[in-house]
Amino acid sequence: MLVKFFGDAFFHAPTAATINLLSQAGRDAPVYVYRYNFLSNIDAYGNTVNFTGAAHGTDFLHLFSPAMYAATQPPGSQPTFMERSITGRLQTRWTEFAKAGLNLWERHDPQDPQMYSLEGGQMIPSLGQRELTLWSDLLPMVAQMGKTDSPWVPGGPEPTAKPSKPG
C-alpha cells in the first residue's frame, strides 16, 4: 500500500494533471496516453522479483529491445512469449506514430479520461481517477485551508452564532 501511495503521489497524480492540462489547452496537437504495467519476472533494473508492478521506464526495455533487453538482463536470459508480444505491440504503436502520425488508440478526452493498455490492447479508464482525487482535490483544499484565518472551507458559509435561550 505504501508503494501505491508514493506511486500515486510522485507518478500518477502529476502525470494525470499534466495530461489534463495539455488536453484542455486548446492546442491542435492531440494527447495520447498509454499504460505499461506488464508484470515481468525481470525488469529494466535487473530485479528478479518484482512485487510492486512495472518499474518506471521498463517500457523502454521493450521499445528498444532486443539490445536493451540483453544489456539489462542476466546472460542467456530470453524474453517470454508475453514479453515478445508486448514488445511487438509497443514497437508497432511507436513506429506508426513516428512514421505517419497515426495513433492506434483514442485521443485523450478530459471528460472521459481513458488510456490505451499495452497489456490488454484496449482502452481502459485512465489512472484510477477516483484514487487520485486525494492528490488533485482534497490535499489542495487542505493546503488552501491552512492559508486562511477561517477554519471553514474557502468559499463555504461562515458559521453563525445562535443566541442562547434563557433557561
Describe the protein.
The protein has 167 residues and is mainly α. The chain has a domain at 31-128. Helix content is 43%, strand content 6%. The chain has 5 helices and 3 strands. It has helices at 2-24, 59-63, 67-72, 81-100, 129-145, and strands at 34-35, 114-117, 122-125. It has a 3-stranded mixed β-sheet, with no helix packed on it. Strand 2 (114-117) and strand 3 form a beta hairpin. The protein is globular and about 70 Å long. Pfam families: COesterase.
Structural features:
167 residues, mainly alpha, 3-stranded mixed sheet
Low-pLDDT parts are none
Mean pLDDT comes to 75
Instruction: Please identify the oligomeric state.
Output: single chain
What would you report as the Rg, rounded to the nearest angstrom?
23 Å
Which structural class is indicated by helix and strand composition?
mainly alpha
List the helices and strands in order. Answer: HEHHHEEH
Q: Please work out how many helical segments DSSP would assign.
A: 5
Strand order within the widest beta sheet: 1-2-3
**What distance lies between the first and last C-alpha atoms, to the nearest angstrom?**
54 Å
Largest sheet: 3 strands, mixed
- Share of helix, binned: 40-55%
DSSP strand tally? 3
Strand content: 5-15%
Shape: globular
InterPro entries: AB_hydrolase_fold, CarbesteraseB
Keywords: Glycoprotein
Pfam families: COesterase
